[in-house]
Amino acid sequence: MLHVSLLGEQSVTDGATGPALTRSPRAIALVGFLVTHAGLPQPRQRIAALFWPDSSDAQARTNLRRELHHLRQVLGEESALLVTAQDLSWHDTPSCRVDVRVFDAERRAAAATTRDEEVVAHAGAALAEYRGELMPGLADDWLDAPRAELEQDCVALCDLLGDAQARLGDLAGAAETARRRIRLRPLEEVGYRTLMGLQAELGDRAGAVSTYHRCAAVLERELGVVPDRATQAALRRLLADPAPGRDGFESRLVGRAREFALLRELWRKAAGGQPSVSLVRGDPGVGKTRLVVELARLARSQGAVVAGTQCFGTSGRLALAPVADWLRNPVLQPALSALAPVWRAEVDRLVPAGKTGGPPPVVRAVADAWQRHRFFEGLARALTGAGRPTLLVLDNAHWCDQETLVFLLFCLGLEPRAPLLLAATQRTDPGDGALAGWTERLRATGRLTEVDLTPLDAPDTARLAESVSGRRPEDDELALLHAATGGFPLSVVEALRSGGAGPPGDLAAVLEARLKQPAPQARELAGLAAAVGRDFTLDLLTEASDLDAGAVVRAVDELWRLRILREFRDGYDFSHDLLRDTAYQQVSRPRRWLLHRRLAQSLELLHPGDTGSVSAQLAEQYARGGRPDRAVAYYRRAAGLAAGTFAHGEAIRLLREALALLADAPAGPETDRRELEVLEALSGPLNARLGYSSAELQRTLERSIELSERLGQRDSTLVGLVGLWTSRFVQGRTARAHEAAIRALALVDGSTKDELSGSAHFAFAGSSVSLGRPAEALRYFDVAARLTRGAPSLPIGTRPEVHSPAWAAHAHWLLGHDDEALRKCREAVEIARTYPHPYSLAVALAYAGITHQMCGDRERVSAVSTELRELCGRYGFAYYREWGLVLRGWARGDRVGLTDAQRGIANLKAEGSLARMPYWLALQADLMARDGRPGPGRAALDAALVVGQARDDLWWLPEVLRLRSAYDTPERAQLRLKSAVELAAAQGSTTLRLRCERDLERLAD
Question: In a 10 Å sphere around its CB, with 0-12 CB exposed, 13-18 middle and 19+ buried, how is residue 313 labelled?
Answer without folding.
Answer: middle
